[in-house]
Amino acid sequence: MPKMYYESDADLSLLSDKTIGVIGYGSQGHAHAQNLNDKSLNVQVGLYEGSSSWEKVKNDGLEVGLVADVCKQSDIIMMLIPDHLQASVYKESVLPYLLPGKTLMFGHGFNIHYEAITPPENIDVSMIAPKAPGHRVRAVYERGLGVPCLVAVHQDVSGAAHDLALAYGKGIGGGRAGILETTFKEETETDLF
Known about the structure:
Distance between the termini: 22 Å
Radius of gyration: 15 Å
Structural class: alpha/beta
Strand content: 15-25%
Number of helices: 9
């Protein structure tokens, strides 16, 4: 039976000394970044040069930088750009900065499950996947509620990948509704099919 986690099961303080790089500011990216920022966490948004979202991020009161610069500074890197763009952005701007001790996260398991992205073996790789579009994730969060999320761990080098993912899920409001244990394979296939 899959396990369900709630607010009391997650320790937000695990993120208090971390820099979180949210890559992308589309549907999920803006919701994750703003919700984490509302929890007083250190969030930066990574975008490509010339992105139309650059000013929007600044207007929303968040730090913004090029993807590579944000990845260099971040302890946790959350990939929230469209699936078909992730592999090339990962190879060019993320992989060079995936040093031991960092965590690579995903909002959807596609690129890990289908091996378009193969992370180094010395980092944690996990997923928090909200089961709603980003505008809903944000709107529900602002009302003091949350949308259900899925949590999965692909690589646990530190021994704390699961706890860190749950903390992130709590940070975006998922613990208020429940965070369900899954795998990258299950999340990807149920989402696609």
